[in-house]
From TrEMBL:
Organism name: Dactylosporangium matsuzakiense
Domain of life: Bacteria
Residue intervals of the Nudix hydrolase domain: 30-162
Record keywords: Hydrolase
Protein name: Nudix hydrolase domain-containing protein
CDD domains: NUDIX_Hydrolase
Molecular-function GO terms, alphabetical: hydrolase activity
Amino acid sequence: MAAGRYCPRCGGPTGELPAKCGACGYETYLNPRPTGTVVLLRGDGTFLAIRRAHPPREGWWDLPGGFCEGFEHPAEAAVREAREELGVEVELGEFAGMHIGVYEFQDEQLPVLEHFWVATIKAGHIALDPAEGSEYAWLPLDDPPEMAFPSMDVVLRNPVVRRSS
């Protein structure tokens, strides 16, 4: 079933989003899903990337991060995701940007509102979650590979990130 075809409240037909159900009047919108992501830097001009272990973009380099839970602030999500994916506690630094992106999920192109912070590891040793990544590497910020999502390519060129490295 494609998103927006049926009302989530009464099941009546609605058409594509945004939509107002003709049966019950419920309005449904396609809003971006917020994310929180860290750009972990070392003082040697490198950043930490994870090779994605699952679709979408399986096998591409990714930054540690993910979707916010219900009412979770994106900064809290960034810290939580780093802990879950890498097994480390991070300290957030400067906010490095917010971008609208696209995430493919269940054969749909979903809008995402991506939030990025410069960060450093403050406690722990990297223990990559194999469900999230097949490997990790410290890559050169001056010559990064193409990342899994275009917004990551943009944020790696951001002056906030460059001057923090």
